[in-house]
C-alpha cells in the first residue's frame, strides 16, 4: 500500500472517530516519510486520546513542515489549533496569544474567510474583555454564514452564546448555545471537534448561570458522545463544570464526587483543566469550612494567567473565612487592577471586597465597592448579579446602622436567591437579615436565623452553622437539639479532631468553631479520653490516619 493510500485510510479513521486506528495509520505513514499532513493528523488523534503533550509536539512539527512548503492556510490552521490547545488544555494564555498572533500575520492581506473566522474564535475564547469577545464571535459567525462553513458557524454560535451569558444576557445566550449543541450533536457538522467546542461553551455557560437542569441534560448527551467516541478532555470538563453547578445548588456530596473525578482524570495530563478542578474544589472546601484543605488545593495551582485569576478570588475567600480581612482586601485590590472588562469576575471580586472592608471597619470603602457592584449589575440582565449587588448594599447599610435600608436590600436579595434555588446564598442572606432585625423584631430574627441554620446544617457548611448558632445563643435561644453521636465521637468532636489533624491549637480551634477556649479544650480532652490517646500529637496522627490528610482530594467523612 502506498503512503498516499495509508494517509487516506488514516484520515478516514480520524473522520469516523476511530482514534486508535487513526493514530496507528498516521504513525505508519510517518515510518515511511515525515509529512506535515501525517504529523497534523497524528496530533489530532493524540489529542482525542488524551495525550496532550505529544499532541502539541506533533502539531509544532506539522506547523514547521507546512511553513517550509509554503502552505499558508495549513500553517494557519495548525497555529489556531495550537492556540486553542494551549488555552483549553494548558491554561497558557501567553503561548496561545503567540500562536493567534502568528496565524493573524500569516493571513494578513488575504480576503477574510473561514480561516480568519477560526482565528477570531480562538482569540475570543476565554477573553476577559467580553465586548471584544462578542465582536470577534459575531464577525466569525458572519464569515461562516457567508462561506457556508457549518462547523465555524456552530462554534461561533456557541461562543457568542457563552459571551452573552457572561454579560448577563442569559436567555439570549442559551438560545444560541442550545441551537449550536442540537445541530452539532445531530451530525450537522463535518468534524467531531465541533461537538467538543460547543459542549465546552455550554458547560462554561451553565456554571456562570448556575443552571443545573440544563447542565444535567446536556451532560447526559455529552456523556453518550464520550462513550461512543472517547475524549478525556470533554469527559473531564463535564465532571468539573457539573460539579461546580452542583456546588452552587447545595448538592455538595454530588459536587465532591464530580470534582474529585475531574481532579483524578486531569492530574498530570491536562494542566488547564486541572487548574479549574482545583479551584472549584477549593471553593467547595471553603464553603464547607474545611479551610486547611482549601489552602492545600490552592497551593497546587500552576502559574498561568487563568490560574492566577482563579486563585486570587479563592484565596481572598479563604482569607476572609479565616478572619484575615486586611490581607483579603489587599489581595482583591491588587487583583481588581488586572481583571479588565470581565464584569462577572469583577462582580465576584467586588462582593468579596465589600465584606473585607466591612470586616476591617472601612465602611465607606465597602460602600464604594458595593456601588461599583451595583453599577455592574445594572448594566447586565442577570438575576444573580442583581441579588449579589442587593446583598452587598444591604450589608453596607447594616454596617452604617441603617436597619430599614439594610432590610429592604436583603429582602430583595433573599427573594431572588430563593427563586433561583441557591441554598447557600439564600441562607447567608437570611442570616444577615436576621441580624438586622434582631433589635426591632427579635422573633422574626430568630425565625430567620433558625431557618438559615437548618440549611447550613443540611448542606454541611460548618463555619456558617457555627456563626448562626453563636448568634442564636447571643439571643438566649438554644441553637441545636444537641450533637448526635457518630461512632465514638460526636459531630462536634469530629470537627475538632479534623482541626487537630490540621495542626491547629486550642485557641485557633475555638476561633474557627466560634467556641470559648475552655469549650475547645474540653472537646480536645474528651477526644483523647474516648480514643485512648495520650496527647495532641497522637490525636493529630489519628486524624490523618482515619480522616485522611487535609489536602482536599478525598472525602474523609
Can you put this structure into words, describing what you see?
This protein is mainly α and 557 residues long. Among the domains are: 1-110, Serine Threonine Protein Phosphatase 5, Tetratricopeptide repeat, CATH 1.25.40; 487-557, Arc Repressor Mutant, subunit A. The chain contains 29 helices and two strands. It has helices spanning 3-15, 19-32, 36-48, 52-69, 72-88, 93-107, 114-124, 130-147, 150-166, 170-185, 193-209, 212-229, 232-248, 252-266, 271-288, 291-299, 305-321, 325-336, 343-359, 363-378, 383-399, 403-420, 423-437, 442-459, 462-474, 491-501, 506-513, 517-531, 536-547, and strands spanning 485-486, 489-490. The relative contact order is 0.05. The model is unreliable at 481-486 and 552-557 (pLDDT under 50).
Largest sheet, strands/sense/barrel: 2 strands, antiparallel
CATH class of the domain at 1-110: Mainly Alpha
- Judged by helices, strands and strand pairing, the structural class is mainly alpha
Q: Can you say what the CATH homologous superfamily of the domain at 1-110 is?
A: Tetratricopeptide repeat domain
Strand residue content? under 5%
Please tell me what the overall shape is.
globular
Question: Distance between the terminal alpha carbons, to the nearest Å?
Answer: 60 Å
The total beta strand count reads: 2
Helix content: over 70%
Low-pLDDT sequence parts: 481-486, 552-557
CATH architecture level-2 label of the domain at 1-110: Alpha Horseshoe
Write down the CATH topology of the domain at 1-110: Serine Threonine Protein Phosphatase 5, Tetratricopeptide repeat
- As laid out across the biggest beta sheet, the strand order is 1-2
Amino acid at each position: 500500500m502506498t503512503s498516499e493510500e495509508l494517509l487516506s485510510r488514516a484520515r478516514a479513521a480520524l473522520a469516523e472517530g476511530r482514534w486508535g486506528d487513526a493514530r496507528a495509520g498516521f504513525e505508519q505513514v510517518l515510518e515511511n516519510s515525515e509529512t506535515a499532513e501525517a504529523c497534523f493528523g497524528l496530533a489530532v488523534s493524540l489529542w482525542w486520546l488524551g495525550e496532550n503533550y505529544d499532541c502539541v509536539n506533533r502539531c509544532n512539527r506539522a506547523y514547521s513542515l507546512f511553513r517550509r512548503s509554503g502552505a499558508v492556510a495549513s500553517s494557519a490552521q495548525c497555529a489556531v489549533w495550537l492556540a486553542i490547545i494551549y488555552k483549553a488544555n494548558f491554561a497558557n494564555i501567553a503561548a496561545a496569544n503567540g500562536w493567534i498572533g502568528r496565524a493573524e500575520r500569516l493571513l494578513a492581506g488575504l480576503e477574510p474567510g473561514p480561516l480568519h473566522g477560526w482565528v477570531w474564535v480562538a482569540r475570543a475564547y476565554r477573553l476577559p474583555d467580553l465586548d471584544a469577545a462578542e465582536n470577534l464571535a459575531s464577525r466569525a459567525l458572519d464569515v461562516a454564514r457567508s462561506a457556508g462553513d457549518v462547523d465555524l458557524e456552530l462554534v461561533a454560535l456557541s461562543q457568542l452564546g457563552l459571551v452573552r451569558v457572561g454579560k448577563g444576557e442569559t436567555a439570549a445566550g442559551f438560545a444560541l448555545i442550545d441551537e449550536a449543541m442540537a445541530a452539532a450533536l445531530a451530525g450537522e457538522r463535518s468534524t467531531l471537534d465541533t461537538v467538543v467546542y460547543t459542549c465546552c461553551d455550554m458547560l462554561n455557560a451553565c456554571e456562570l448561570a448556575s443552571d443545573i437542569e440544563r447542565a444535567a441534560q446536556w451532560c447526559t448527551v455529552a456523556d453518550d458522545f464520550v462513550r461512543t467516541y472517547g475524549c478525556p478532555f470533554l469527559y473531564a470538563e463535564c465532571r468539573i463544570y457539573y460539579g461546580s453547578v452542583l456546588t452552587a445548588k447545595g448538592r455538595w456530596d454530588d459536587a465532591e464526587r464530580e470534582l474529585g473525578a475531574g481532579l483524578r482524570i486531569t492530574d498530570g495530563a491536562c494542566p488547564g483543566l486541572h487548574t479549574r478542578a482545583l479551584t472549584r474544589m477549593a471553593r467547595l472546601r471553603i464553603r464547607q469550612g474545611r479551610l486547611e484543605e482549601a489552602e492545600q488545593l490552592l497551593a497546587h495551582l500552576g502559574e498561568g494567567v487563568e490560574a492566577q485569576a482563579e486563585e486570587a478570588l479563592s484565596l481572598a475567600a479563604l482569607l476572609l473565612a479565616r478572619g484575615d480581612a486586611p490581607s483579603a482586601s489587599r489581595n482583591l485590590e491588587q487583583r481588581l487592577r488586572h481583571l479588565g472588562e470581565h464584569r462577572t469576575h469583577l462582580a465576584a471580586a467586588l462582593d468579596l471586597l465589600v465584606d473585607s472592608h466591612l470586616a476591617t471597619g472601612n465602611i465607606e470603602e465597602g460602600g464604594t465597592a458595593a456601588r461599583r457592584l451595583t453599577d455592574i449589575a445594572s448594566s447586565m440582565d442577570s438575576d444573580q448579579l442583581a441579588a449579589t449587588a442587593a446583598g452587598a448594599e444591604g450589608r453596607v447599610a447594616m454596617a452604617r446602622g441603617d436597619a430599614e435600608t439594610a432590610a429592604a436590600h436583603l429582602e430583595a436579595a433573599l427573594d431572588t436567591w430563593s427563586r433561583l434555588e441557591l441554598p447557600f446564598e439564600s441562607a447567608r442572606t437570611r442570616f444577615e437579615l436576621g441580624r438586622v432585625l434582631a433589635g426591632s423584631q427579635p422573633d422574626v430574627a430568630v425565625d430567620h436565623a433558625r431557618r438559615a441554620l437548618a440549611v447550613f446544617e443540611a448542606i454541611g457548611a460548618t463555619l456558617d452553622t457555627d456563626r448562626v448558632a453563636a448568634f442564636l445563643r447571643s439571643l438566649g435561644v438554644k441553637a441545636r437539639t444537641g450533637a448526635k453521636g457518630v461512632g465514638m465521637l460526636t459531630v462536634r468532636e469530629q470537627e475538632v479532631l479534623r482541626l487537630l489533624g490540621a495542626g491547629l491549637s486550642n485557641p485557633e480551634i475555638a476561633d474557627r468553631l466560634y467556641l470559648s477556649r475552655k469549650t475547645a479544650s474540653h472537646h480536645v480532652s474528651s477526644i483523647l479520653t474516648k480514643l485512648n490517646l495520650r496527647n495532641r500529637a497522637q490525636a493529630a496522627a489519628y486524624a490523618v490516619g482515619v480522616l485522611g490528610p487535609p489536602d482536599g482530594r478525598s472525602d474523609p467523612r
